[in-house]
Design a protein that fits this description.
- The protein is α+β, with helices and mostly antiparallel strands.
- The chain contains 14 helices and twelve strands.
- A hairpin with a 2-residue loop joins strand 5 and strand 6.
- Helix 4 runs antiparallel to helix 6, helix 10 packs across helix 11 and helix 12 packs antiparallel against helix 13.
- The longest helix is centred in the C-terminal third of the chain and has 24 residues.
- It is elongated.
């Protein structure tokens, strides 16, 4: 088996813990997140509620029967998503290989991170400390040479736990691991395996491969590999946004420069707002034009400094339009931003870019103020004025 070091982070009763974080009066009380009607189900249960036998996916009416003092809180998905983004960003400061599995758990490949962040134990403790400090929540962490073992390990010492499986402990861990704990073994598979006399993952090792395939299909091969400690599943980060763009097919073809500029202004605002929402800045601005003969034309310009506000995007797009000077009527126009950087990325300013940096900073403040107004009063509550079409 290849020598990997995989960390699995699992937040502790995430939704319920967020509610107790935001409302201290709920701490220490049996609480579930879910619909209040009897037809609802439990989305998450606090550890206090779990002591009554309440768990996720349980009907609310059953949960009420188990605990008369149960507190039921409706879900706040935007709040959970915002905290999840904070947590995933923390993980990315330790390794570029972070694979979110759900809103409250993720794998991280920390192979080769020792020189920067210390031993696997030190990294795991630092992850837990950073999440507690920045998000105010606890998590449980498992570290192992393979993904499936790391996931199991993170569940072995909840809440706020840490379990590390060293390479020389792998086979002993496998030999004792109850077969129902193996990821992918549901109730039906468990019943089949128990009928075969397989009660631990270690019991799979001497079992003939042909029998496993006959009984379990392809999953039999997977079990055989896991029983020997083989799991080469990589940690696969989510695909990163490479560009942000928008385009408009005009209601009628036009040669009117002012009308095209009006579209470019609106599109520059939309692209800039999306970059701010996703916390990006861009180095390259692209203009896309389709003429009445359906020919597609594009031009790009790389700016001396990354930008996030509409004004420099618009100015670049207008300059590109002038350079392109389409020969015929235009039927489609679009603006895009690429060369994306996280907005927190430090950038070395050029010797003669100080004035531009100051202007960009001023426009950033204007656009962020507009974002705040639109967030409170609705999209497009306030926007920059558009250029009027020529008469």
């Amino acid at each position: 088996m290849a020598s990997f070091i995989i960390l699995h982070m699992d937040m502790d009763a995430f939704f319920a813990s967020v509610e107790q974080l935001d409302d201290p009066s709920l701490r220490g009380r049996p609480l579930v997140v879910g619909g209040r009607s009897n037809r609802g189900v439990v989305a998450a249960a606090s550890y206090e509620a779990r002591r009554f036998g309440i768990h996720s996916a349980m009907p609310i009416f059953q949960a009420r029967r188990k605990c008369s003092s149960l507190v039921i809180v409706p879900p706040r998905r935007k709040r959970y998503a915002a905290l999840s983004r904070t947590i995933m960003t923390i993980l990315e400061t330790f390794s570029p290989l972070v694979e979110p599995v759900s809103i409250d758990e993720a794998f991280m490949d920390i192979t080769g991170c020792g020189r920067l962040h210390g031993s696997p134990r030190q990294i795991a403790l630092a992850v837990k400390a950073q999440i507690l400090s920045q998000a105010g929540l606890t998590c449980s962490v498992g570290v192992a040479p393979a993904k499936f073992m790391a996931k199991i390990a993170s569940d072995m010492d909840k809440p706020d736990g840490l379990t590390i499986i060293e390479p020389d402990q792998v086979m002993g861990f496998i030999d004792k691991l109850p077969i129902q704990k193996v990821p992918g073994v549901g109730s039906r598979a468990e019943a089949q395996l128990l009928a075969m006399g397989i009660r631990t993952l270690g019991h799979v090792r001497p079992c003939p491969e042909s029998l496993l395939i006959r009984k379990m299909g392809k999953f039999g091969l997977r079990l055989k590999a896991l029983a020997h400690g083989r799991d080469d599943s990589p940690v696969t980060p989510l695909c990163r946004t490479k560009s942000i763009s928008t385009e408009t097919t005009l209601s009628r073809d036009t040669r009117d420069h002012n009308r095209l500029c009006a579209y470019l202004l609106s599109q520059s605002q939309a692209v800039a707002a999306e970059m701010r929402r996703k916390k990006f800045k861009a180095r390259t601005i692209t203009l896309k034009i389709k003429t009445a003969d359906f020919k597609l034309h594009s031009r790009s310009r790389t700016l001396p400094l990354p930008v996030q506000s509409a004004d420099p995007i618009y100015q670049a797009a207008v300059a590109l339009l002038q350079d392109l000077s389409p020969a015929g009527p235009v039927r489609l126009v679009g603006v895009g931003a690429s060369g994306l950087l996280a907005e927190s990325t430090p950038v070395q300013a050029g010797l003669f870019s100080g004035g531009q940096q100051t202007r960009n900073g001023k426009w950033d403040k204007v656009d962020k103020a507009m974002d705040a107004v639109n967030l409170r009063f609705g999209v497009r509550a306030v926007a920059r004025g558009k250029l009027p079409p020529s008469e």
